[in-house]
Amino acid sequence: MSGRFILPEPPLLSRSVFDRADEIRDDTDRMRTGWTSAKVLLVDPDGRYPVNGNGGLHWLDAATVADEPPADAVFLGVLDTDRWTRRVDHIDGPTDDARRGAARLSADEAGILATALGILNWHASARHSPFDGSATVPARGGWVRRHVASGRDEFPRTDPAIITVVHDGADRILLGRQAVWPDGWYSTLAGFVEPGESLEQCVIREVHEEVGITVTEPRYLGSQPWPFPRSLMVGFAALGNPDDELAFLDGEIGDAQWFHRDEVRAALAAGSDWVRSDAETAQPSAAGEEPRLRLPGSISIARTMIAAWAG
């Protein structure tokens, strides 16, 4: 039995269809003209952003921010009107962070937020050339950093990583817990792609390094931007043998267990996840014990893949 499954819909951060409007990034006059009716999302150094009363993104009228696009603002695209983002030291009023708050956003706003965080995080680490250390400045609406001296352009960096549902082709799934995570927190296995390596090769290597078993038939499921700080998570399913002995070879995994489909379904139904506040957390069992299994939050592709397998 192969246990093949698909994602019923894209992960939350991969559902947006807003217009990124690449052709506008080179048109300085068009960006200035659009600024008069544009909206701006502020983001602080911790990745927090302002929210309205419903938990949605709180956009500022661009005209209240500056008379024209500031040099450090990034053009995100067009959603009804031009949308920009800008990093600031402090945000007044209520804020949220994407790990907790993105689930309250529409598909387009979740995608715009992921874009804003990813590009701003890149800018924070790209102020100097990786080649000679010379200064760089933003250009093309924030989508490149240009060498002051040579005019050479540096482009945004996205780090590819695989994330894998390891299952036995029947009713068991292998989930791991990093050594630094609280008891009961489990997720799929993941790791960054190395140079000279395909995605499928990375799946096999990372699973072996983390839990000591060799998986087969890596199969692509879907992908999701993960702007913490600027990754692309590429989701796979792969087959493993529950009779193989687990060994935590690279030291990242503190524990891994095979869970039955019924237990995973129960955890999904109970809403037992990592990001719920104390007031929202599911009640302990009648015996007063914490749930044995808590799953990643709803914005992660890990949660989407686990739910698709369990279903």
Topology:
Elements: H1 28-35, E1 39-43, E2 49-50, E3 60-61, H2 62-65, E4 74-79, E5 81-87, E6 95-96, H3 98-101, H4 107-124, E7 136-139, E8 144-147, E9 153-154, E10 159-167, E11 172-178, E12 189-192, H5 199-211, E13 216-226, E14 231-239, E15 253-260, H6 261-270, H7 301-310
Parallel strand pairs: 1-5, 10-14
Antiparallel strand pairs: 1-3, 2-6, 4-5, 7-8, 8-9, 10-11, 10-12, 11-15, 13-14
Strand residues, percent: 25-35%
Biggest beta-sheet profile:
6 strands, mixed
What is the helix/strand order? HEEEHEEEHHEEEEEEHEEEHH
Structural category is alpha+beta
Helix content percent band: 10-25%
List keywords for this structure.
311 residues, alpha+beta, Nucleoside Triphosphate Pyrophosphohydrolase, 2 domains, six-stranded mixed sheet, 15 strands, 26% strand, globular
Structure summarized in a few sentences:
This protein has 311 residues and is α+β, with helices and mostly antiparallel strands.
Structure, described:
This protein has 311 residues and is of the alpha+beta class. It folds into two domains: 12-127, Nucleoside Triphosphate Pyrophosphohydrolase (Alpha-Beta Complex), CATH 3.90.79; 159-310, Nucleoside Triphosphate Pyrophosphohydrolase, CATH 3.90.79. It has seven helices and 15 strands. The chain has helices at residues 28-35, 62-65, 98-101, 107-124, 199-211, 261-270, 301-310; strands at 39-43, 49-50, 60-61, 74-79, 81-87, 95-96, 136-139, 144-147, 153-154, 159-167, 172-178, 189-192, 216-226, 231-239, 253-260. Strands 10, 11, 12, 13, 14 and 15 form a six-stranded mixed beta sheet that branches. A four-stranded mixed beta sheet has the order 3-1-5-4, sandwiched between helices. The longest helix is centred in the middle third of the chain and has 18 residues, at 107-124. Residues 277-288 have low confidence and may be disordered.
